[in-house]
Amino acid sequence: MSYKPVYPDFNKDSLVNLMSSILAHYDLSSPYPILDKHYLKNIEGCEKLVFFLIDGFGQNIWKKYALNYSLFKTLSDNTDKSSITSVFPSTTAAALTTIHTGLPPKTHGILEWNVYFKELNAVISTIPYQIVSPIYDSQALSKYKNNSGILINNITIYEKLLKKNVKSYILYPKQFIRGTYNREAFKGGLSSLYISLSDLLIELTSKLESTKGKAYFFVYWPFLDTTEHFYGPFTRQTEMHIKMLNDMIQDLLIKNINKASAKKIGLILTADHGQLACNPEETAYLNEIKNINSFFRKTSTKQYILPSGNPRDIFLHIKKESIAKSKAEINAFLKNKADVFLLDKSTLDRFFGDDIPHPSFFDRVGDMLILPKDNNLAWYQYLPNEPFVYKGTHGGFTEEEMMIPLLAKRLIDLR
Q: Alpha helix locations (H) across 31-155?
């Protein structure tokens, strides 16, 4: 493992630029540059696009396993350059929101899975839309449940496409469909639920053949990431999951769709982030620092603003008078296993870009950022009996976490 640092560049080869390219495919503009044309040259002029997002299928995992299987190998053939950067933090909440809005995290405001929301006086888990600790009032969340824009108050990709009379279909696992985040993220799109991979691919094939005219399909498969979290990214379980994806996409979509449709459909395959192997038993818990909570700022309702982010990127809201002391104590505790940054303008621009910030961006990022080195972990345990247990993780800015594959071909060329 290299653990080489990689910063997103939203002027070039990143997930943000991919979304600009998708909009441009349908003659829509974006404030961010499109990708170099070679990335999507194979699908120029396609009537329909299928954006197939496989959660956790980073470039490191793609290189290790995917090229052993026929469909994924064909996707890579005759491809000059086949990887781009994700966003930072390299996490599903930040990347998915970029995919739904076309905006970088600094602008859309969903920075991580766990984020401090000043509006709610709480640190919440964004996609499930729930508080992280009983110290916060869960009733505050109910005020904003019904399409209030509390999580996503930007125009979505799907709303933009609808103005061009391009229908969008979002194929999403049934068990994750409900909730405030998806109601706001899917605005302008038509959601279709699936219960299994075969169900997903049969439904996708049917919709591709029956939908007339231009259309955009966003397909989200989260279960490779789940497998990597529980077993580790470089395991037999991960490899067999990738084989299953290769075989079933080939059998139920590529071979099954009619030839006339296959000529007009472009497949874009990518991921939201990669993963690296880690040892959860070696997690450094900030709770072990004596009186750590005394450094934290408080909400307007007098609760501590607990650390947010995840064990690869920890955001801290520190009282101004405690900045120097807290940084020294955290550095001493972590023993060179992490870098601790004060979040001044130059540091924020390096990780998040110099784009227009979301109105709540500075409230949400806080004052200090901990980035564990190599594959180390650091975290704050919200509840005493809930330690970090995953054997695969992401969220940091290493090459393993940040680089994602980008493959694009017409379905007819994958037969």
A: 59-65, 70-76, 92-101, 105-108, 139-142
- From edge to edge, which strands make up the β-sheet containing 114-117? 130-131, 122-125, 114-117, 308-310, 313-316, 368-372, 338-342
Cα separation of 179 and 157, whole Å? 19
Q: What is the 3-state secondary structure (H, E, C) of 367-403?
A: CEEEEECCCCCEECCCCCCCCCCCCEECCCCEHHHHE
The answer to whether residues 75 and 289 touch, using CB atoms and an 8 Å cutoff, is no
pLDDT in tens, 125-161: 999 999 999 999 989 898 876 657 899 999 999 999 9
Half-sphere exposure of 33 toward its Cβ, with a 13 Å CA cutoff?
A: 9
In a 10 Å sphere around its CB, with 0-12 CB exposed, 13-18 middle and 19+ buried, how is residue 153 labelled?
Answer: middle
Helices (H) and strands (E) in the chain, counts: 16, 18
Between CA 118 and CA 120 the distance in angstroms is 5
Radius of gyration, CA atoms only, the chain: 21
pTM above 0.70, yes or no: yes
Q: Are 345 and 368 in contact (CB under 8 A)?
A: no
Q: Sketch out the chain's domains with CATH numbers.
A: 15-110+151-277+398-414 (3.40.720.10), 280-389 (3.30.1360.180)
d(C-alpha 115, C-alpha 126), whole Å: 7
